């Protein structure tokens, strides 16, 4: 007996992060393919993985988050207009996540971290310099909150594709 292809999923209902709400519609093949590409990019980056206080650099996390803009744009361009721009489409959801979720976080923290990084003494390691930053704990906490929101987005993409997230 042939295995059922999860990509044949028709009606989806998803809860979305960042105050976007929820959506229910019939995702077509173009949307499912775009959702899969977005899902793979999202779950394989620091964006949805917890950055423990003693691991990695906040700069690396910001760079990873920022890269989601170019990646999402490319996926949506490649998918074409059939991916949609309404709030009940993969394209519309992806754009809302960028504009309502990632953009405010990056707009706040990128310039603050950049200013602090410019003050790094030549003898200090980037990691130690970040640890000496008075705003490091706050940024780290907000990054964890953002990661939970992005995990919800990843789960929504998984539902659209028809796989377990």
* N- and C-termini, Cα separation: 25 Å
| Weakly predicted, low-confidence segments | 1-9
Q: What is the approximate shape?
A: elongated
Order of helices and strands: EEHHHHH
Tags for this model:
single chain, 165 residues, mainly alpha, two-stranded antiparallel sheet, elongated, disordered N terminus
Describe the secondary-structure layout.
Elements: E1 11-16, E2 21-26, H1 29-43, H2 58-79, H3 90-117, H4 126-131, H5 136-161
Antiparallel strand pairs: 1-2
Compact summary:
Mean pLDDT is 87; it is low at 1-9.
Explained architecture:
- The chain is mainly α and 165 residues long.
- Helix content is 59%, strand content 7%.
- The protein contains five helices and two strands.
- A hairpin with a 4-residue loop joins strand 1 and strand 2.
- Helix 1 packs antiparallel against helix 2, helix 1 runs antiparallel to helix 5 and helix 2 packs antiparallel against helix 3.
- The chain is elongated, with a radius of gyration of 18 Å.
- It starts with 10 loop residues before the first strand and ends with a helix.
- The N terminus is likely disordered.
């Amino acid at each position: 007996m042939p295995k059922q292809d999860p990509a044949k999923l028709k009606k989806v209902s998803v809860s979305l992060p960042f105050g976007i709400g929820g959506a229910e519609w019939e995702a077509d093949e173009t949307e499912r393919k775009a959702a899969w590409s977005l899902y793979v990019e999202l779950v394989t980056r620091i964006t949805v993985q917890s950055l423990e206080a003693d691991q990695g650099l906040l700069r690396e996390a910001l760079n990873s988050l920022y890269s989601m803009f170019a990646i999402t744009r490319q996926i949506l361009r490649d998918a074409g207009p059939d991916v949609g721009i309404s709030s009940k489409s993969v394209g519309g959801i992806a754009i809302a996540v960028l504009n309502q979720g990632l953009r405010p976080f990056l707009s706040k923290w990128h310039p603050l971290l950049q200013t602090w990084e410019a003050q790094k003494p030549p003898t200090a390691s980037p990691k130690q310099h970040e640890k000496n930053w008075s705003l490091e704990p706050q940024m780290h906490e907000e990054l964890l909150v953002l990661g939970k929101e992005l995990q919800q987005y990843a789960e929504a993409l998984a539902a659209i594709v028809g796989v377990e997230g």
